[in-house]
Amino acid sequence: MTNGTRAGAPPIEGRYFEPGSARAFPARMTISGHLATISFDRDGASHSSVREVLAVGARLGSVPRRIELEGGALFEAPADARIDAAGDRESRMLARVFDLEASWRTVAILVVATVVSVVLLLLYGVPTLANVAARMTPASVSALMDAGTLKTVDQTLLSPSQLSVERRQALADRFSRLAMQAETGSVPLALVFRSSPIVGANAFALPGGTVILTDELVLMARTPDEIDGVLAHEIGHVEARHTLQMLYRAAGLAVMVGVIAGDSGQMVDTLLAQAASLQQLSYSREFEAAADRRSVELMLAAGEGRDPLAFVDLLDRLLEQLSPGASHQGDSFFSTHPGNPDRRNAVLTHARSLGWGS
């Protein structure tokens, strides 16, 4: 190789324009270093011209490449021409990329590799990063999130509790005994009471350790253990930072949808958004199952003969109220919570593994 030019480089077929002329001649060009030798026929006579290469146009789709020559002459080469000239603005790596693009097999491999990478990132990368981010979030930040969320839901969905002071105090005392067994680190646990015909019988945990219990759920419960099991379940969510993880996972999925979809159109955006939604469903089932197991552990650790399965009885009645027959249905792919028969079996198995009932 001399002056950066490949030895034995084949000539390039194209069109040659003489200086100041718009007339094109079929021609052949060979390049050595900075110099190009152009052979062409004009008016039945063969001609040859040696000119310095000043610039080589970059590849742009199927647009012919323009090689600017000394004196204002121009050579037009095919779009896929390999031009080894000192003035070529393409790096060797870029040229290799264009070669790869020309192979459908390479493109197919790259597409498959990209899909696999996205799936792996979706299944493992985003959850792992969300878990790390959730556990690194300072307690002061999650406390601010709790305060803002509670203020919003108090203005829109919730109203002050109508339970008696004595009833609330008794529930708070039982909650405190469960909280003593919890491992929430620097995140303090707090139980607040609200009423809401809109939300109905429910309990849910906020990122900063606030657990909201509705009057409707208290009134539906038949035993204190049913309420304790639900509260222990919510404490399990706080311990594992599930709410924060869901927030971070949703943010990560939103970023992925934006990066992948770009401006590709409404159809692709919709498909990717639906894929993200399905992934979020599996996240929810995963977290619910983990919180169920932690509920069993906290109930048994708190002692006093608490029944770790009692909360499943409460959920059965709640599901029957919302949808008759639902409490007997198994797990569904589109369900955000484990089906109750499956849930009961899983809770019972975990409780027995810890020595309950033996």
TrEMBL record:
For this record, the Gene Ontology CC terms, alphabetical, are: membrane
Co-factor(s) = Zn(2+)
Biased region (Polar residues) positions are 326-338
Q: Provide one Gene Ontology biological process annotation.
A: proteolysis involved in protein catabolic process
Q: Region entry Disordered: which residue ranges?
A: 326-345
List the CDD domains hit by this protein, alphabetically: M48C_Oma1_like
- Stretches assigned to the Peptidase M48 domain: 169-347
Indicate the segments forming the DUF7092 domain, all copies: 12-86
Query: Which Gene3D superfamilies would you find in this protein's record?
Result: Metalloproteases ('zincins'), catalytic domain
Cross-referenced Pfam families: DUF7092, Peptidase_M48
Query: InterPro entries this protein is in?
Result: DUF7092 (IPR055518), Mito/Outer_Membr_Metalloprot (IPR051156), Peptidase_M48 (IPR001915)
Q: How is the cofactor bound?
A: Binds 1 zinc ion per subunit.
> Any stretches that span the bilayer, and where are they?
102-126
Report keywords, A-Z. Hydrolase, Membrane, Metal-binding, Metalloprotease, Protease, Transmembrane, Transmembrane helix, Zinc
* MF annotations from Gene Ontology: metal ion binding; metalloendopeptidase activity
Question: What family classification does the UniProt entry report for this protein?
Answer: Belongs to the peptidase M48 family.
Q: What is this protein called?
A: Peptidase M48-like protein
Source species:
Hoeflea marina
The major lineage groups are: Bacteria, Pseudomonadati, Pseudomonadota, Alphaproteobacteria, Hyphomicrobiales
